[in-house]
Each structure stands twice: as structure tokens, then as C-alpha cells.
């Protein structure tokens, strides 16, 4: 009986300690992150993998190109038979056979991917009809690049306020035939290295339209949870945008009787959608960065309806980040810098200190 009593007492004390910590994180003022976490949300049930969603093996025999040669290839664009890619090193490169040719560098010289905010992080990109490359760098803004000379022109700055808010993550682009740019601001609260905090917070992403003639931006859809890939329909009647954590895609009508109306293009996807591409046949390619099903749910599906739990988790991460930042401020060191970066990044949804992440 004495041993059982001691065990019960031990677990009761641990439970009490955890409860006190959670209550402090939930109600204590001035605890980072300083953002709203109040709105519950739900993710639509995952569609069954049947019919058009039945698993296929079409990509089983694809050729793996430049394996291990590129760090974090994200966006791809093709022009005159040549392929270009954006990298986590802050560069856009041209891929010609086995050759990799640097085209343009965003950001500043840095030590590694953990200094992404310094390196720059180009994401979505697309060529316009004049052969100029439109690139969204997550940290540095929206650019027009001459791939022959490497010259770049800033179109939208992160310091620019758009309808009351500044963009913290420039993500994807889609170009209309008249040169206008439809693009996504994944967040107006957190940078991309704080992606997990953005997942936990209330949505702040946007779909925007950049008018090349007036050089002005207009918000088309607001409050998208980590707004991601953007793609125009082949006839440019509408534009679609991924809402990654909620496994769905929004649609905004640009023409016709529904002009200015937006709705859900598809939800309940069997995973989190990222970049979007037209298949040239009236449909779209939708890659999923994390697969889910009814038995294996993603984190947003589990915690979305519970803002209190999301707030506790966000503040826990915020306190950890604050500790590392304080240490690094007084005793600059690479370990703290890597911890700040990888602990908050999307990679933190899996074990954050795997060797592969410590480049």
C-alpha cells in the first residue's frame, strides 16, 4: 500500500505541476507570441481514396534529377526549354542537363540554411511573356528578374503596408496574360521560420492582386491559414489558392457573373496542399506536403477546434524561442541560432533535431 500511495502521490504532483504551467501559459500577460489565438476552426473530413482519388503509381518511375545537389528546391519555372529552380540558399539556378548555373541571389551572404532570414528564401516563381522571371522571396519581397543578367527589380517590399498590414511571408505567384500578378502572402504575423506558430495562431494569410500598370496591390481573400500555392485557370476565369493546414483550396472568380465572389474549390484533401500547377487540360496538379487520412490525422485537424490548447502550445514554443534568443544575444553561438530556426520551422512538426536538418 505504501508503494502504491507513493506512486499516486508522484503522479498527482506531476499532474498539478503541468496544470499550473498550462494555466500560466494560458492566462499570463505579455507572453510571446504576441498574436491572437481565439478562433476555433475545423478541417473537413478527408475524402476517401476512391474514384478519382484512388492511389495510382503514375510517378513510380520518374527520373530523379540532381539528387543531393540542390538544397531545398521549391519553385520551378521553364522558359525556352530550360528549367529554373529556387533554393533554400537564397538563389535561383538554371538546370541544364547535369549543369547547375547560378542566376540570381537574394538576401545577403550567410552561414547556412539556419540563417534563412539573412540568406533569403525564394519560393514561387513564373516567367512573364517577355522572359522576365517573377519571384517571391519569403523574406525580401516580390521581384522581377532578368535571368540573362541577374538584375532584379523589387515590385513589392516587405516594408510596404497593404490594406493595413505588412507581409511577413511572400510565397507563390501566378501571372495573367496581361502581366498582372496574383500572389500569396502566407502570413502577416509570422515569418516562414515561425511556420508552426502561424499554424497555431488565427489565420492571417492573403490572396493578392498586383496591377502592373498602377503598381498597386489589392487583397482578394483575407484570413487564409498559411496561404500557399496560387494558380490561374487556363481561361483565367478564376484563380485558386491553397490553404495548407486546412487541406483545402479556395477559388476567386475574376470574370463572369460571379466576378469578385470566392468559394471553396475543394476541401477534404488527403493531405496538405502546397504549390499548384495547371495540367493544361482544364485541371490542376496539387502536390501534398503531408498525407492524411481518417485514421492518421494531421496536427491542425486535431487541435484546430481548441484555441486554448493552441495558445498553450504557441506560448510554450514562444518561451523556448525567447530563451534561445536571449542566450544568443548575450553569448552568440551557432547552436542557439539553429535551435531558433529549426524549432519554429515547419520541420518542427517532426523531431526537430534530426541530423539532416543541421546543415
TrEMBL record:
GO cellular component, one term: endomembrane system
Keyword check for Glycoprotein: yes
Gene Ontology molecular function: hydrolase activity
Keyword Glycoprotein: yes
Domain Strictosidine synthase conserved region: 171-256
Domain of life: Eukaryota
Gene3D superfamilies: TolB, C-terminal domain
Keywords on record: Glycoprotein, Phosphoprotein
InterPro entries linked: 6-blade_b-propeller_TolB-like, Strictosidine_synth_cons-reg
Similarity section: Belongs to the strictosidine synthase family.
Protein name: Strictosidine synthase conserved region domain-containing protein
Organism: Acanthoscelides obtectus
Amino acid at each position: 500500500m505504501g508503494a502504491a500511495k507513493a506512486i499516486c502521490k508522484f503522479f498527482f504532483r506531476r499532474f498539478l505541476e503541468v496544470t499550473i504551467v498550462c494555466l500560466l501559459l494560458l492566462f499570463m500577460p505579455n507572453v510571446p507570441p504576441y498574436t491572437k489565438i481565439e478562433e476555433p476552426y475545423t478541417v473537413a473530413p478527408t475524402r476517401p481514396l476512391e474514384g478519382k482519388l484512388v492511389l495510382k503509381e503514375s510517378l513510380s518511375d520518374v527520373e530523379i534529377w540532381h539528387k543531393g545537389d540542390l538544397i531545398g528546391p521549391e519553385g520551378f519555372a521553364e522558359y525556352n526549354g530550360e528549367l529554373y529552380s529556387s533554393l533554400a540558399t537564397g538563389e535561383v539556378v538554371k538546370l541544364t542537363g547535369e549543369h547547375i548555373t547560378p542566376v540570381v541571389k537574394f538576401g545577403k551572404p550567410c552561414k547556412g540554411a539556419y540563417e534563412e532570414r539573412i540568406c533569403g528564401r525564394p519560393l514561387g516563381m513564373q516567367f512573364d511573356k517577355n522572359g522576365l522571371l517573377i519571384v517571391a522571396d519569403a523574406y525580401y519581397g516580390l521581384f522581377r528578374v532578368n535571368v540573362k543578367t541577374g538584375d532584379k527589380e523589387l515590385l513589392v517590399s516587405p516594408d510596404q503596408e497593404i490594406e493595413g498590414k505588412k507581409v511577413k511571408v511572400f510565397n507563390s505567384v501566378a501571372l495573367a496574360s496581361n502581366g498582372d500578378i496574383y500572389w500569396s502572402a502566407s502570413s502577416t504575423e509570422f515569418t516562414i521560420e515561425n511556420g508552426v506558430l502561424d499554424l497555431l495562431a488565427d489565420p492571417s494569410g492573403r490572396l493578392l492582386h498586383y496591377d502592373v500598370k498602377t503598381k498597386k496591390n489589392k487583397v482578394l481573400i483575407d484570413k487564409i491559414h498559411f496561404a500557399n500555392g496560387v494558380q490561374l485557370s487556363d481561361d483565367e476565369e478564376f484563380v485558386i489558392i491553397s490553404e495548407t493546414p486546412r487541406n483545402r483550396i479556395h477559388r476567386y472568380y475574376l470574370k463572369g457573373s460571379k466576378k469578385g465572389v470566392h468559394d471553396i474549390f475543394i476541401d477534404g484533401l488527403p493531405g496538405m496542399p502546397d504549390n499548384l500547377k495547371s495540367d493544361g487540360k482544364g485541371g490542376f496538379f496539387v502536390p501534398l506536403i503531408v498525407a492524411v487520412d481518417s485514421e492518421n490525422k494531421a496536427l491542425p485537424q486535431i487541435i484546430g477546434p481548441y484555441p486554448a490548447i493552441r495558445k498553450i502550445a504557441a506560448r510554450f514554443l514562444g518561451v523556448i524561442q525567447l530563451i534561445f534568443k536571449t542566450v544568443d544575444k548575450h553569448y552568440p553561438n551557432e547552436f542557439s541560432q539553429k535551435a531558433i530556426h529549426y524549432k519554429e520551422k515547419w520541420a518542427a512538426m517532426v523531431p526537430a533535431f534530426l541530423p539532416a536538418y543541421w546543415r
